[in-house]
Amino acid sequence: MSPVLVASDLDRTLIYSAAALALTMPDARAPRLLCVEVHEARPLSYMTETAAALLTELGDAAVFVPTTTRTRKQYQRINLPGPAPKYAICANGGHILVDGVADEDWHAGVQARLADECASLDEVRDHLAATADPLWVRKHRVAEDFFAYLVVERELLPEEWVKELAVWAENRGWTVSLQGRKIYAVPKPLTKSAAMREVARRSGAVRSLAAGDSLLDADLLLAADRAWRPGHGELADTEWGADTVVALPERGVAAGERILREFLREVR
């Protein structure tokens, strides 16, 4: 039988920072947590121990592909339970890792397409630098020479500025996504779905499952045969949906556990 490919976003889908856990139950009933990411000697991301066991099962039963907007360096500090994934998608589809090593041909092809189809990264960076107020911007960052993002003080961020940026970016072939304390400006041709299709081709998978919570995951969810989104995040906030996408009620780390249960049920 052909394998099933499972392409899942990571942050706020399968793994969660302390601020995103959404532990609303009494302390005594809180789930046991497993730390899956340490950065600068500090624990950073978690999943429930039950989710960790489910992910281990999934890694044995399907082609599990971590699919993230993170850079390769940011992805590689995550220590997921279960078998090491043969494939991973980083930089929103800009890199396909094969046994931890970036496929240079894929990377070159993506770069060429971006150069042909949308405004340059330099133009977008200059616009962000000129319009973003230092009052609420904490960091300006560029990821893998593919896209730019800002780390902001969310409570001070003007909604109108985000809307104006989205319109400006749209006219130049870029899209804007607000995720927690980060605002991403990403070229439209840079997609997780294109990378997922390439991994499906290489792995021989004829059926695909996916999950994600943000606007940058929408194309991935639509490209999969069946997909899930949690009850939090950009997609939930805008009530985004499609016939093949299940909107789950769970929020926070409980949603990550539910998503893995749904993946396993479909794979089996």
Description:
It contains nine helices and 14 strands. The protein has 268 residues and is an alpha/beta fold. It has a five-stranded parallel beta sheet with strand order 4-1-12-13-14, sandwiched between helices. A four-stranded antiparallel beta sheet has the order 8-9-11-10. Strand 6 and strand 7 form a beta hairpin. Helix 1 packs parallel to helix 9 (253-267). The chain starts with a strand and ends with a helix. The mean pLDDT is 96.
Q: N- to C-terminal separation?
A: 12 Å
**Helix content bin:** 25-40%
H/E element order: EEEHEHEEEHHEEHEEHEHEHEH
Instruction: Outline the low-pLDDT stretches.
Output: none
* Outline: globular
Would you tell me the overall average pLDDT?
96
Strand order of the largest sheet: 4-1-12-13-14
What class would the helix/strand composition place it in? alpha/beta
State the total count of DSSP E strands: 14
Q: Treating each run of at least 4 consecutive H or I residues as one helix, how many helices? A: 9
Strand content: 25-35%
What can be said about the biggest beta sheet? 5 strands, parallel
Question: For the CA atoms, what is the radius of gyration?
Answer: 18 Å
